[in-house]
C-alpha cells in the first residue's frame, strides 16, 4: 500500500529518479540508434512483404500471413517507432530520420496533433481531472470521480467500438468534438483543428481501401479485406495496451491545480497514474514498451527500449519509499480494465467508493 | 480542398519514399546529401585525403569548405573541411583532414572511416575564394593544416592554366609535411609558380618579407593559425584575405550575465539579462517561442542552437558545438547565442 511521503522524502524520491535519468542519458549511444533503425527496417520490410502477399498471393495461407505481416508492421510503426520517436527520445542522435518534431507516423492522427494532445497535455497533466483529456478520452467513465451521465450505460459497447476504430479515435481526440458539442469551442476553431486530420485520414483511407485494392486488379477484395483486418489488428492491440497503462484498478486520478507542484510530486503523480504489463522482450517491443507505462511516464523522453533495464531500479526506489508499483500480467490488467469499464457504466452506488483512488 | 499537407509530405516523401530509396542505395536520399567514401589517400603521417562520391553535388569554388556530418557513438557531429578536389568534378569530391591531437572527429575520420563509409554533406560554403578574374600576381600563405584551401586554389589555377605569377609560402613544423612534394613538382613544371617551404622555427614577418620582397604588391590569401595570419597582414601592410578554421571559442560566462541572442529566422537580436531559462528570457523580451510543459518533458520548445554555449539545467550538460538541439525551457545561456527561431 502506498505510504504518504513527507516533503523531504518526496524530494529525495525525486532526486533518486533524477539520478537514474541522468545515468541513463549519459549512457545513450550506438546501441539505441541501432535498435530503432532495426525497428524501422523491420517496419518497412514487413509492410512490403505483407502487401506483396496480399496483392500477388492466392489462397488462405498467404492471406493470413500477409495480413499478419501488414498488421505487425503497423503496430511496430505506430508504437515502437512512431510514438517513441515523436516523444523526442532519439533527438540526441541528430539524425533527421529520428527527429521527434518532424516524424510523421503511419496512422490517421497527424503527428503535430499528437505532439500537442499527447506529449504536452497528457504527459504534463497526467490523470488530473479537468486537465488531462486522456482520462476516458472525454466520453468513457473510468473513475468514480467522473460525473455519471446516462450515455455511460452504453460504454461497454462504445469502448469496444473505440477499440476497433482506435486510429480514428486518436485522430479525432485533438479536435475537441465534445467541447464543440458543449458550446465551449467555436465552429471556426473546430474547422481549423479538423483540417489536418481530415486530409491525412482521407489519404490513409484512400491508400488502404481504394488505391491498393485497385492496383491489385482481381485481388481487390482480398487486398481490401486484408488491409481492413491489419488496421483492426493494430487498432485493437494499441487500444488494449494503452487502456492497460492508465485504467486498471489501483491507478489514481488527481484533483489539483498543479500550482507549485515539485519535481518529486510530479514523479509521484506519474507513478501513481500509470500501470505496467509484464511480459517477454517481444511483447515489450510490440507494445512499443508501453508495457512499461510507469517508466514511460517517469522518463517520457528516454528511448523506450531502455525501460526494461531501468524498471528494476525504479521498482527498488518505489519499495524503499513505500510506493506501490502497479504491475501485472496482460490478462490481469485487461480483465481489470474491463471490470472498471463495466462498473463505472453505472452511477456510484451508496457510499461504495471507486477502486480508483483520488489524491487531493 | 487541397489534400496535400505537411503530414502528407512528411509521411509519404520524407519517410516512405526516403526509406525505400535508402534501402536501394545508401547514398540516395530526398532529404540530405549523402556520399560514399571511395578512396582514402595518406598524404603524410597525420594527414589524409578522403575522396567522396556524393549522390549529387551542387558544385563549389576552389577554397571553399563543406560541412561533413559523421555519426560517432550514435550521435551526429558536424565539422567543416576544405575541399581539395577540382571544382569541375561533380562526381568526386575530396576533403583533406589533418589529425588534431586529441581531436574526436578528425581522430574518428583517421581511425574508423573506411572505404564504403557513408557520410552526409552540407552545402559547400565559404568566401575564401579567388575572384572570377584571377589577380595576375598572387601570394598564397599557409600555415600547417591551413594548406588545404590553398591547395584547392592552386590545383584549380593549374587546371585552368591561369597561373601567371604565384608565390606559395608554406610554414610547417617539419619538411616532410603533406603536399610539399606536390608543390615542388608543380614548381618544376610551371615557370609562373614559386614555392617557399619554411620548416622548423616559427615564421616571422621579417622572414616573410625576406623570402617574398614584393609581398605588398601581390594579392594575398592566407590560412592558418591566427598569429600567422596576423604577421602576414603586418608584412603585407594592407588588407589581405583570411580564412579562419577555428571560430573564436565563445567565453563561457556565468549563467546570469547579460548576453545577446540572435533569432536567425525572425532576424532579430534580443538582449537577455538576469536569471531565468532561455524560454523565460525570450518571453520577457517580448518573443513568443513555441512551448508546452515548461519542465523539459514535452519537447515542444526544442530548437536548433546554431552557435554559442548553453547549459541544460535538467542535466547539467553544456552544449558547446554548433547546430545542436536544445530545449528553451530547461536551458540557460552561457554567452551570446544564435538560435534557429
Greatest interface (CB-CB under 8 A), with counts per chain: A-B, 47 and 38 residues
Rg of chain B computed from alpha carbons, rounded to a whole number of angstroms: 23 Å
Q: Write the H/E string of chain A, N to C.
A: HHHHHHHHHEHEHHHEHE
Radius of gyration of chain A: 21 Å
Q: How many beta-strand elements of chain B? A: 19
Q: What fraction of residues of chain A sit in β-strands?
A: under 5%
Mean pLDDT of chain B: 91
Structural class given helices, strands, pairing of chain B? alpha/beta
Q: Write down the overall geometry of chain B.
A: globular
Largest sheet of chain B: 6 strands, antiparallel
Query: Which residues of chain A sit in consecutive blocks of at least 5 with pLDDT less than 50?
Result: none
- Write the element-wise H/E pattern of chain B from the N-terminal end onward: HEEEEEHEEHEHEHEHEEEHEEEEEE
Helix content of chain B: 10-25%
Mean pLDDT of chain A: 94
Can you give me a brief rundown of this structure?
The complex is a heterodimer of chains A (360) and B (341). Chain A is an all-alpha fold and 360 residues long.
Structure in words:
The complex is a heterodimer of chains A (360) and B (341). Chain A is mostly helical and 360 residues long. Chain A is 61% helix and 3% strand. Chain A is built from 14 helices and 4 strands. A two-stranded parallel ribbon of chain A has the order 1-4. A two-stranded parallel sheet of chain A has the order 2-3. Chain A is globular. With 341 residues, chain B is α/β, with parallel strands linked by helices. Chain B is 23% helix and 31% strand. Chain B has 7 helices and 19 strands. In chain B, a hairpin with a 2-residue loop joins strand 3 and strand 4 (75-82). The longest helix of chain B has 19 residues, at 6-24. Chain B is globular and about 70 Å long. Chain B starts with 5 loop residues before the first helix and ends with a strand.
Amino acid at each position: 500500500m502506498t505510504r504518504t511521503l513527507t516533503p523531504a522524502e518526496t524530494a529525495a524520491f525525486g532526486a533518486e529518479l533524477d539520478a537514474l535519468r541522468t545515468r541513463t542519458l549519459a549512457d545513450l549511444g550506438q546501441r539505441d540508434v541501432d535498435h530503432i533503425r532495426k525497428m524501422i527496417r523491420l517496419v518497412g520490410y514487413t509492410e512490403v512483404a505483407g502487401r506483396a502477399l496480399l496483392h500477388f498471393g492466392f489462397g488462405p495461407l498467404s492471406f493470413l500471413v500477409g495480413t499478419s505481416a501488414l498488421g505487425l508492421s503497423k503496430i511496430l510503426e505506430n508504437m515502437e517507432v512512431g510514438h517513441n520517436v515523436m516523444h523526442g527520445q532519439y533527438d540526441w542522435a541528430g539524425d533527421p530520420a529520428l527527429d521527434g518534431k518532424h516524424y510523421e507516423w503511419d496512422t490517421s492522427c497527424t503527428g503535430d496533433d499528437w505532439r500537442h494532445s499527447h506529449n504536452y497535455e497528457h504527459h504534463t497533466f497526467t490523470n488530473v481531472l479537468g486537465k488531462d483529456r486522456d482520462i476516458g478520452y472525454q466520453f468513457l467513465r473510468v473513475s468514480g470521480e467522473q460525473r455519471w451521465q446516462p450515455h455511460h450505460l452504453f460504454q461497454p459497447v462504445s469502448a469496444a467500438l473505440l477499440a476497433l476504430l482506435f486510429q480514428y479515435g486518436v485522430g479525432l481526440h485533438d479536435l475537441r468534438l465534445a467541447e464543440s458539442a458543449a458550446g465551449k469551442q467555436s465552429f471556426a476553431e473546430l474547422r481549423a483543428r479538423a483540417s489536418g486530420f481530415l486530409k491525412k485520414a482521407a489519404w490513409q483511407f484512400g491508400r488502404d481501401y481504394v488505391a491498393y485494392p485497385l492496383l491489385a486488379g482481381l485481388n481487390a477484395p482480398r487486398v481490401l479485406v486484408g488491409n481492413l483486418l491489419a488496421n483492426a489488428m493494430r487498432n485493437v492491440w494499441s487500444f488494449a495496451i494503452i487502456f492497460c497503462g492508465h485504467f486498471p484498478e489501483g491507478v489514481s486520478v488527481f484533483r489539483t491545480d498543479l500550482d507549485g507542484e515539485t519535481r518529486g510530486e510530479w514523479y509521484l503523480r506519474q507513478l501513481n497514474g500509470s500501470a505496467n504489463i509484464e511480459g517477454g522482450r517481444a511483447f515489450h517491443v510490440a507494445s512499443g514498451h508501453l508495457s512499461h507505462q510507469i517508466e514511460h511516464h517517469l522518463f517520457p523522453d528516454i528511448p523506450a527500449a531502455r525501460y526494461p533495464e531501468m524498471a528494476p531500479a525504479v521498482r527498488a526506489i518505489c519499495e524503499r519509499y513505500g510506493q506501490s508499483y502497479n504491475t501485472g500480467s496482460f490478462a490481469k490488467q485487461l480483465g481489470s480494465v474491463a471490470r472498471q469499464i463495466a462498473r463505472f457504466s453505472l452511477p456510484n452506488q451508496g457510499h461504495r467508493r471507486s477502486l480508483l483512488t483520488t489524491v487531493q | 480542398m487541397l489534400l496535400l499537407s505537411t503530414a502528407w509530405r512528411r509521411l509519404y516523401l520524407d519517410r516512405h519514399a526516403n526509406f525505400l530509396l535508402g534501402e536501394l542505395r545508401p547514398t540516395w536520399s530526398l532529404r540530405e546529401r549523402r556520399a560514399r567514401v571511395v578512396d582514402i589517400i595518406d598524404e603524410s603521417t597525420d594527414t589524409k585525403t578522403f575522396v567522396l562520391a556524393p549522390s549529387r553535388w551542387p558544385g563549389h569554388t576552389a577554397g571553399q569548405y563543406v560541412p561533413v556530418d559523421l555519426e560517432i557513438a550514435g550521435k551526429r557531429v558536424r565539422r567543416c573541411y576544405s575541399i581539395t578536389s577540382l571544382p569541375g568534378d561533380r562526381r568526386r569530391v575530396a576533403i583533406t583532414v589533418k589529425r588534431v591531437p586529441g581531436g574526436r572527429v578528425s581522430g574518428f575520420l583517421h581511425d574508423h572511416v573506411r572505404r564504403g563509409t557513408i557520410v552526409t554533406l552540407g552545402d559547400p560554403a565559404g568566401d575564401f575564394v579567388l575572384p572570377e578574374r584571377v589577380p595576375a600576381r598572387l601570394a598564397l600563405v599557409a600555415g600547417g593544416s591551413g594548406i588545404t584551401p590553398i591547395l584547392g586554389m592552386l590545383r584549380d589555377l593549374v587546371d585552368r592554366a591561369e597561373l601567371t605569377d604565384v608565390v606559395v609560402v608554406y610554414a610547417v613544423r617539419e619538411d616532410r609535411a603533406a603536399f610539399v612534394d606536390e608543390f615542388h613538382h608543380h614548381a618544376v613544371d610551371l615557370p609562373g609558380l614559386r614555392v617557399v617551404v619554411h620548416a622548423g622555427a616559427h615564421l616571422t614577418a621579417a622572414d616573410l618579407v625576406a623570402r617574398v620582397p614584393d609581398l605588398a604588391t601581390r594579392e594575398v590569401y592566407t590560412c592558418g593559425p591566427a598569429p600567422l595570419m596576423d604577421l602576414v597582414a603586418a608584412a603585407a601592410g594592407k588588407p589581405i584575405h583570411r580564412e579562419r578554421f577555428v571560430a573564436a571559442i565563445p567565453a563561457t560566462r556565468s549563467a546570469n550575465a547579460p548576453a545577446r541572442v540572435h533569432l536567425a529566422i525572425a532576424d532579430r537580436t534580443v538582449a537577455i539579462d538576469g536569471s531565468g531559462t532561455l524560454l523565460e528570457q525570450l518571453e520577457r523580451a517580448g518573443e513568443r517561442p513555441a512551448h508546452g510543459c515548461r519542465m523539459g518533458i514535452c519537447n515542444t520548445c526544442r530548437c536548433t542552437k546554431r552557435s554559442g554555449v548553453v547549459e541544460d539545467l535538467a542535466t547539467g550538460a553544456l552544449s558547446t558545438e554548433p547546430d545542436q538541439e536544445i530545449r528553451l525551457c530547461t536551458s540557460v545561456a552561457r554567452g551570446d547565442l544564435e538560435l534557429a527561431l
